[in-house]
Structure formats: structure tokens, C-alpha cells
Specification:
The complex is a heterodimer. By secondary structure, chain A is mainly alpha-helical. In chain A, 78% of the residues lie in helices and 3% in strands. In chain A, a hairpin with a 4-residue loop joins strand 1 and strand 2. Chain B is mainly α. Chain B has one domain. A two-stranded antiparallel sheet of chain B has the order 1-2. In chain B, helix 4 packs parallel to helix 14. The relative contact order of chain B is 0.09. Classes of the chains: A mainly alpha, B mainly alpha. At the A-B interface, helix 5, helix 6 and helix 7 of A face helix 18, helix 19 and helix 21 of B.
């Protein structure tokens, strides 16, 4: 029930925030915080239950109600260690995004927090729904509030960016819907029963051409969300134009839903098709890593630059998933969490800078370190996290992914390793252009971090360092579910 | 005609009597509110009768009409659409400089025509139903002929609709004549007609093709869609709602019934025609909608696209065996219901806004700028309608779209399925455009008329009901699905 508690307290909080927001913006902020806190309490109690359950079974919680009888569709929620980690990340970044929204969002607060909390609820749903139909519903539903967040509170090109974001995701998910229905009917042909449950559908025999087509339907939808080449084009616009909390949610959480989908659905449902497709997918992953890193280097717009680094990092995730062995999958999960924290940090920094300097153009910045030592030092932390400095979470993730990939496709690992050289180039360029050198006129007289902002960034730094130094916290939880997925996906 | 046949015809008789009662009523008391009440209550009762009769055995009432659960269901739906239409007409007509009461007579006649069309399994009753509906609609489309703001547009739309509808009817009649020449009988079930003189089947092929053209005009399938955008834009908003909701449901129901009866070699020809029209409507309908600047026009193209999507179920009916057939029928019925609810929601919003200021229906989309922050209820209803039309989950539109995908995969109509996906993806753009306009902060060069708009309780209630309906169909469709399954079993 805790899972439902999380979702309901977020949804309820959203509605209340809208109602209260008409009277007072401050009240709606505190109310959102309270609803996040309520969700976290449910999450904590889920965690409490799970320490015992983890030892005995993979599934910590399993809720099941009939929804649409005609098609055997259930309201089926379940979590394993993987979902648990990702829901935790969602709530944590929820706090960070809320803190960044605290003063940035001034207009129509009630409506903003409604959309904000609904997005979080949708993402939690995506991470815990194990009925394919229900998953699809959450998958689409988290889109609408995010679309509104970009479209109403975004920057100058917001309408274009929001529309592009929506169309890319929706169009690709229609393919997923068709593939999903295909899979269900295939299963019905084989066994005679109509079900959308993940547990049942993983028993389907999906070898052969039809399996490949169905797999592609899912793969494309997840690749768009991830995003990977060649369908990454929506991301730079969406991330750049979204308000800071929106960017944090997008980069930190929404991208992870694509990776989660690949892990949870593509391999376990279509092991044969995924195996034969893996070289191509890994090739696309390598391309994403290198091409996006190159593009990141060419950007002057800080947010756009960070957006491209996201694509590059998600390339590693794609690689790791399609290598499909224990090492690479563990690395992938770590990379997802690490990237969630570091990209959220970088977007938060970009937001803080834009608030202070009214620009995102790196060429107009410079010498910020002398003005804002605290902010600059924290930026340094996030930049080196992004470039994969040992001691921080991203390093563990990327390193393990490369190790895992090397066992399967040495060429892919070798090529992707070049990405680890390109990352320092763009990450250090941010530092060089923005924070070092002579102070420009635009950067005179700006305030350093206030306690709220320090808290917001502090949460992220603690997470990065903790996971970097003590990765077993995460690995002990994800070992069992990863092995289970590997078993379903017939991997080694 | 025995008693049982008579009772099964009760909803139709009731609708017919509404028009007579209204005629008499108007002769004695001219009262807009009372007229509207009588119409709406009449529609509600007739819809109730139609639904309550479901589950009883099918009745062939004379050779002309068949009252089975399929027709009871869709007659009920059409009557509910007419009810919504009459309801939203009240506020709209209140602000019109026009005689108001006669409008409701036309509405009830049009609804009667639609019901007859749904229940017909004979070409004669089909034609009577179709013409009864169309002729009433000519007048309804051109109803605002004396209004200063609207006269030009509404008259143009009325004449256009009349001329093109007349042309399509003549195609249709000629087709029916040829089929008659082949079969010697006017029943749409050619099995029954098989005892006829058996001229060469060329008559049947050409006749069916012409009949299909006639149907395509009414359904506004491309390339027979020319009238749609102009008529949608020019007609008064409630009438456009009726055109988009009731007319499409009724004509489609007839097409479905006809194709289910169709057999043999000419079926492949019909199927080819249908597939081509489906592909064109899905893709072109959406493409043409992209840059439209008037909301009603945009919805016109959107309805072209939606009617293109639903051909999937027709094609599935025509291609495959019994199990696929029942899924296809179920899909068609569900799609019609969901489509009716979301379309009526959209037009209810437009018509309530237009009741306050005709600029909302005649002007550009810019008129709607920032409406979300001025009229939250109306704007959220419109946003919901747009999301539903775009097929977002948790709204009625998604269930409809899901059924179409299911039917397409089930019958392996891959070409239609891929165009369905492409068309829906294209469609997102203009639905989002409307939403973006609604939540755009008003800026100086588009000042909003800050006239205070006051909406009556009845208007709000209608909106809430339609919103609930649209959400309910999306959130928990099980009862409706079971009900539809009952109807087609």
C-alpha cells in the first residue's frame, strides 16, 4: 500500500496546491513540500518493510486490482530493488526541484505545483506499474504536466520546445502501443489468455521476425525518451527552454524512464530479438556518446551544453543495457543515479546563474569564482562528477559499464572510452569560460548562494560522494533484481 | 405491425412526437425556455427508452427498419448527442437576433432522421432518414440568416451544404437504383434480394461504388470532404456539434450495417475504396488541420481525420471472420461513443463562448489567448477535449484509439495501422497548438476583451457532465465496454 500512498499523496498534494495557490503562493509551496514529505514517509516505510523482504524475495510489494476486465488489464503495482532506487531518486530530485522552484516560479504558483507534483506522481507510476497498459498510461500521463511546465513557465522559445518534446514522445509511444497490443495478441494466440501483466507476458515466446518488430516498437519509444541518436533532437530544446525545476526533472528523472523501460521491458520480453539487435543498439550508443560530446563542446548556451552532455551520458546507459551482463547492468543503474544527481546539479547551477546574470551565454560569463566562491566550488564538483572523476558516482557507473561492455563487444567499449576523454574537455570548458579568467561587466555585483540554494546543491553533492565512495549501498539492493532480469533476458 | 414492433419503435415515435408537440406548443405559447425544456426532456426520455430496451430480441419492424441492440445503442447515443446539442443551443440562441423556437423543431427532425438512418436495413428507409436529417440541417446550418455578424457566413455554409449534400444524395440514389436493377429488391441484405432478376454484377459493382461515394460525402472522407471546413465554420456552433457528433455516428452506423451484409467479389472493390479514403483522410485531414486558424475549421479537419481512423473498423469487418468481426463492431461502437463525447465537449465550450461573443466562433484562435487564466472551467474543458481528441490516456479518446489499434493488429491491417500512427502523430501538433494558445499569457498586441462573461448554472452543468463522461470513459471504461458487448452479441 505504501506505493499507492506515494502516488496518492503526490496527486492529492497537487490538487490541494492548486486550490490553495489561488489565495497564497507561499502556502502552495509549503503544501507541495508537505506532500513530498508525506510521499517520503510512505517511501521510508516501504524501505523499512523491504529490508526484511529483500532477503527472501525480489518483489517487495505487489498490489493487484482488476481494472478493465475485457482485456485482462489490472492495476498492478510492484517494486523490486531497481524500482525502489529509482523512486528514491525521483523523490530526492523532487525536493531539489522544489527548492529551485521556490523563488524562480513567481506566477501561477498553484498551477505550477499541480503540474510539478503530477509529473512526479506519473514518474513514480512508471517505475512501479507492471501491467503494460497501466505502464503506458503513466508513461503518457507524465507527459502532459511536463508539457505545460515547459509551455507556461519556460524561456523564450518555450512553445516550440514544448510541442517538439510532446510530439516526439507521443508519436514514438504510439508505436509502443501498437507493439504492446501485438505482443498481447501474440500471447493470446499462444496460451489463449488475454493479459497485460508483465509477469505473464515475459513467458511469451517472442522469437522470430514478429518478435523483432514488436521489440523495435518498444525500443524506439524508449530510445526517444532516453534519448539516443538518431531521435535525440527534442532534448536540447526542451531542456534549454524549460524553467530550472523543469530541467531538473527532465534530466534527472524523465530520461531515466527510458532506460528503465529498456531494462524492464525490452530485454525480458524479447530476449532473442534484443540479443540479435544488441550490436546495432550498442553502435547507436557509442555514436550518442561521441557525437553528443562533440556537440556539447560547440555550445555557448550553458543549458544547451548540459543537455548535450546528458545525451552523451545516456549513451553509456544504452551501451550498458545492451551488453546485458551483471557488471554492465549494475554499472548502468549506478550511471542512471549518478547522472540524475550530477545533471540535476548542473541544471540547478545554470538556473542560479541565469537568475543572477540574466543570461545563459557562456561567452558573457567569466571570472565568476571571485564573485561567488561557494557556487563556483559546487559547480566544480558537478562538472568533475560529469567528467567521471573517481570518487564520485558517475565514475563507478561509467567504469563498470565499460568493463561489462568490453566482455561482449570490445570495439564498442574501446570507442566509448574516447567519450571519457571528451567529457573533461566540455566539463572543464564550462569551468574555464564561466568561472575562471577576468571578471566581465555582466558578472559584477552578484550574490553568492543563500542557505536554501546551498541546501539544494548540498543534497546532490552528498549523494554523489556517498555513492562514489560507498557504491555497495546501491549494489546490494540492485543485485537480486538485476540477476532476475538477466535470468529473464537469458543473459550471462 | 404488432404491439411488440410498436413498442420497440417507441424511441423513434417519441422523437417524432416531440416535433409535433413543439409545433403545437409554439402555435400557442412562444417561450424559448419551455421549448428547450420540452425538447431536451423528450430526447432524454427517448434515449432512456432506447437504452432500457436493450437486451430484448431484435425486431424487424416492417421491411424497412430493424431494431436490434446495435441500433438501440447508437440511437441512444445519437439522442444523447442531440440532447447536449439542444442544451447548448439555449444560451446560444438567447443571444441571437433570431426567432428561436422553430430551431428545436428542426433539431428534433434531424435527430429523428439520424435515428431512422441507424435503424434502417432497407435502402428506402435509409434514404428517408438521410434526407430528413439533411434537409433539417440545411435550415439549421443557415439559421442565423438575419444576424448582422453571421449572416454571410451562415448563409454561405447553408447553401454549400445544401448543394453538395444534394449532389451526394443524387449519387447515392443512382447507386441505389443500380443495385435495385441488379437485385430487384431494395433490402441492403443482398441475400434476401438474391431471388432477383440477376442482371450482370456490373450493376452491383457500380451501384455500390456510387453508394459509397454518397456515404463518403456525409462522412466527409477525403476526397469528398470539400464542404466540411466551410460548413463547420459557418454553421452556428451547436449545429456544428450536431454535424460532427450525431450525423457522423448515424451515417457510420448505416455504413457498418451495409458492409456487414456485403459479400462476394464486389467487396474487395469497396474495401479498396475505403482503404484509399482512410489513408487520405488520416494523413491529409491532419495535414490540412495543422495551420488552421479558426477553431471550428480546425475541428472540421480533425473530424475528417477521426472519421478516417474509424474506417479501420469497417475494413476489419469486411476482411475477416466472425471473431474479428465482433471485435471490429465493438471497436466501432466504442469509438463512436468516445468520439461523440469528446466532440460534444469541444463544441459545448465553443458554443458557450460564442453565446457571449460570436468572435469565438468566427474569429481566429488568437481570441482564445490566455483563456485558462480568465475562464478556468471552460478552458480546462477545452484542454480536456483537445487531449482526448489527441488520444491521451485517462481520457475517452485513448480508449477509442486503443480499440482501433487492437482491431488493426487483430485483423493485420498494417498499412492502415501505420497511417493511423502517422496521422495521430501529425494531429498532436494542432491539438497542442490550441492548448498552447489557451495557456499563453496575454500580451499587448492581442488584448483580450475584458467583457465580463457570465455563464448560467445550466451551462456549467452541461460542461461538467460532458467532462465527467469524457474522463469516466477513459478512467473506467469497463461498464461501457460490457454494455457495448451486450449490444453486439
Amino acid at each position: 500500500m505504501q506505493l499507492l500512498g506515494i502516488i496518492i499523496s503526490l496527486l492529492g498534494g497537487g490538487v490541494l496546491a492548486l486550490i490553495v495557490g489561488r489565495r497564497s503562493a507561499t502556502a502552495s509551496r509549503w503544501l507541495s513540500l508537505a506532500s513530498l514529505a508525506a510521499a517520503s514517509i510512505f517511501y521510508a516505510s516501504l524501505w523499512h518493510v523491504s529490508t526484511d523482504a529483500l532477503a527472501t524475495s525480489i518483489w517487495l510489494q505487489h498490489l493487484d486490482w482488476l481494472w478493465i476486465e475485457r482485456f485482462g488489464i489490472h492495476l498492478l503495482f510492484a517494486t523490486d530493488g531497481l524500482s525502489l532506487i529509482l523512486i528514491g531518486l525521483t523523490l530526492l530530485l523532487g525536493y531539489v526541484a522544489l527548492l529551485s522552484a521556490w523563488h524562480e516560479i513567481k506566477q501561477r504558483c498553484g498551477l505550477f505545483y499541480l503540474n510539478f507534483l503530477f509529473t512526479l506522481a506519473g514518474v513514480v507510476g512508471v517505475f512501479s506499474a507492471l501491467d503494460l497498459f497501466l505502464f503506458f498510461v503513466f508513461w503518457e500521463v507524465m507527459l502532459v504536466p511536463m508539457f505545460l511546465i515547459i509551455a507556461i513557465w519556460g524561456h523564450e522559445g518555450r512553445h516550440y520546445a514544448a510541442t517538439k518534446f510532446f510530439i516526439y514522445t507521443q508519436a514514438s509511444s504510439l508505436l509502443m502501443l501498437a507493439a504492446m497490443v501485438g505482443l498481447v495478441l501474440l500471447h493470446q494466440q499462444q496460451t489463449g489468455n488475454l493479459s497485460f501483466s508483465w509477469f505473464t507476458l515475459t513467458q511469451t515466446d517472442t522469437s522470430g521476425t514478429i518478435g523483432m518488430w514488436l521489440m523495435l516498437g518498444f525500443y524506439i519509444a524508449f530510445l526517444v525518451k532516453l534519448p539516443g541518436l538518431p531521435v535525440h533532437n527534442w532534448l536540447p530544446d526542451a531542456h534549454t527552454q524549460a524553467p530550472t525545476p523543469g530541467s531538473i526533472l527532465l534530466a534527472g528523472i524523465l530520461l531515466k524512464t527510458g532506460a528503465y523501460g529498456l531494462l524492464r521491458f525490452v530485454w525480458p520480453l524479447f530476449p532473442d530479438a534484443a540479443l540479435s539487435f544488441a550490436p546495432i543498439a550498442m553502435g547507436l550508443g557509442v555514436l550518442s556518446v561521441l557525437y553528443a560530446a562533440k556537440l556539447a563542446f560547440a555550445q555557448n548556451d550553458l543549458k544547451r551544453l548540459i543537455a548535450y552532455t546528458s545525451i552523451s551520458h545516456m549513451g553509456f546507459v544504452s551501451l550498458g543495457i545492451f551488453a546485458w551482463n551483471h557488471l554492465s547492468l549494475q554499472g548502468t543503474v549506478m550511471q542512471m543515479v549518478g547522472h540524475g544527481l550530477s545533471s540535476a546539479g548542473l541544471f540547478a547551477i545554470a538556473g542560479l546563474l541565469q537568475q543572477r546574470l540574466h543570461t545563459r551565454d557562456l561567452n558573457q560569463m567569466g571570472g565568476l569564482w571571485s564573485q561567488m566562491p561557494k557556487l563556483s566550488a559546487l559547480s566544480m564538483v558537478f562538472a568533475v562528477a560529469a567528467l567521471g572523476l573517481p570518487g564520485l558516482a558517475n565514475f563507478i557507473g561509467e567504469f563498470m559499464v565499460l568493463l561489462g561492455v568490453f566482455q561482449v563487444q570490445p570495439w564498442a567499449a574501446s570507442l566509448a572510452a574516447i567519450g571519457m576523454i571528451m567529457a573533461p574537455i566540455y566539463a572543464l570548458m564550462i569551468m574555464q569560460k564561466g568561472f575562471f579568467g577576468a571578471a566581465t561587466t555582466a558578472t559584477m555585483q552578484v550574490a553568492d548562494l543563500n542557505p536554501r540554494e546551498l541546501l539544494m546543491l548540498g543534497i546532490l553533492v552528498v549523494g554523489l560522494v556517498l555513492l562514489g565512495l560507498w557504491p555497495n549501498v546501491l549494489f546490494t539492493i540492485t543485485t537480486a533484481p538485476v540477476d532476475y532480469l538477466l535470468h529473464l533476458g537469458k543473459g550471462g | 405491425m404488432n404491439w411488440l414492433e410498436l413498442t420497440s419503435l417507441l424511441p423513434l415515435l417519441l422523437v417524432a412526437s416531440i416535433s409535433v408537440i413543439l409545433l403545437l406548443l409554439i402555435a400557442f405559447v412562444r417561450d424559448h425556455k419551455l421549448t428547450c425544456w420540452v425538447t431536451c426532456v423528450g430526447f432524454a426520455m427517448a434515449a432512456y427508452l432506447a437504452f432500457a430496451d436493450m437486451g430484448n430480441t431484435a425486431q424487424q419492424v416492417t421491411p424497412l427498419l430493424i431494431v436490434d441492440d446495435f441500433s438501440r445503442l447508437l440511437v441512444g447515443v445519437v439522442l444523447l448527442v442531440s440532447l447536449a446539442c439542444g442544451w447548448m443551443s439555449y444560451a446560444y440562441l438567447e443571444t441571437a437576433d433570431e426567432i428561436r423556437e422553430e430551431y428545436y423543431i428542426l433539431l428534433s427532425l434531424a435527430a429523428l432522421g439520424a435515428c431512422v438512418l441507424i435503424a434502417s436495413n432497407h435502402f428506402a428507409s435509409m434514404f428517408i432518414g438521410l434526407e430528413l436529417m439533411s434537409v433539417s440541417l440545411f435550415a439549421m446550418v443557415g439559421y442565423m440568416a438575419h444576424s448582422k455578424q453571421q449572416a454571410n457566413m451562415t448563409l454561405e455554409a447553408g447553401v454549400k451544404y445544401m448543394v453538395l449534400s444534394g449532389v451526394s444524395s443524387s449519387f447515392l440514389l443512382f447507386g441505389v437504383a443500380l443495385i435495385y436493377a441488379y437485385a430487384g429488391n431494395l433490402s441492403i441484405d443482398l441475400e434476401v434480394a438474391a431471388g432477383g432478376p440477376h442482371l450482370q454484377s456490373g450493376y452491383l459493382v457500380v451501384g455500390s461504388a456510387l453508394l459509397l461515394v454518397g456515404v463518403a460525402f456525409k462522412m466527409s472522407w477525403i476526397p469528398f470532404h470539400m464542404w466540411t471546413p466551410d460548413v463547420y465554420q459557418g454553421a452556428p456552433a451547436p449545429v456544428t456539434g450536431f454535424l460532427a457528433g450525431a450525423v457522423k455516428v448515424a451515417v457510420f452506423a448505416f455504413a457498418m450495417r451495409w458492409l456487414m451484409m456485403a459479400q462476394g467479389d464486389y467487396l474487395s472493390l469497396l474495401l479498396l475504396g475505403l482503404t484509399v479514403m482512410a489513408l487520405l483522410s488520416m494523413v491529409m485531414g491532419n495535414l490540412l488541420a495543422l495551420r488552421q486558424n479558426n477553431l471550428k475549421r480546425l475541428l472540421g479537419y480533425s473530424s475528417i481525420a477521426h472519421m478516417g481512423y474509424i474506417i479501420v473498423t469497417l475494413a476489419a469487418t469486411a476482411t475477416h471472420g466472425a471473431s474479428a468481426l465482433s471485435t471490429a463492431l465493438e471497436g466501432a461502437a466504442i469509438y463512436l461513443i468516445t468520439y461523440a463525447s469528446m466532440t460534444m465537449l469541444a463544441f459545448a465550450v465553443i458554443s458557450q463562448l460564442a453565446a457571449q461573443d460570436r468572435g469565438f466562433e468566427t474569429g481566429t484562435l488568437a481570441k482564445y489567448t490566455g483563456l485558462l487564466f480568465q475562464q478556468p472551467l471552460l478552458a480546462s474543458a477545452l484542454i480536456l477535449a483537445m487531449l482526448a481528441l489527441a488520444g491521451m490516456p485517462l481520457t475517452a479518446g485513448f480508449i477509442g484509439k486503443y480499440y482501433l489499434v487492437l482491431v488493426a493488429v487483430d485483423s493485420q491491417l498494417w498499412l492502415l495501422l501505420s497511417m493511423l500512427v502517422l496521422g495521430s502523430a501529425l494531429g498532436l501538433y494542432y491539438y497542442l497548438r490550441v492548448i498552447l494558445v489557451l495557456c499563453k499569457t496575454p500580451i499587448d498586441d492581442h488584448p483580450i476583451d475584458n467583457q465580463i462573461m457570465v455563464f448560467g448554472m445550466g451551462d456549467k452543468l452541461l460542461l461538467l457532465l460532458l467532462m465527467l463522461m469524457t474522463l469516466w470513459l477513459g478512467l473506467y471504461p469497463t461498464p461501457v465496454i460490457e454494455w457495448v458487448q451486450l449490444a453486439i452479441a
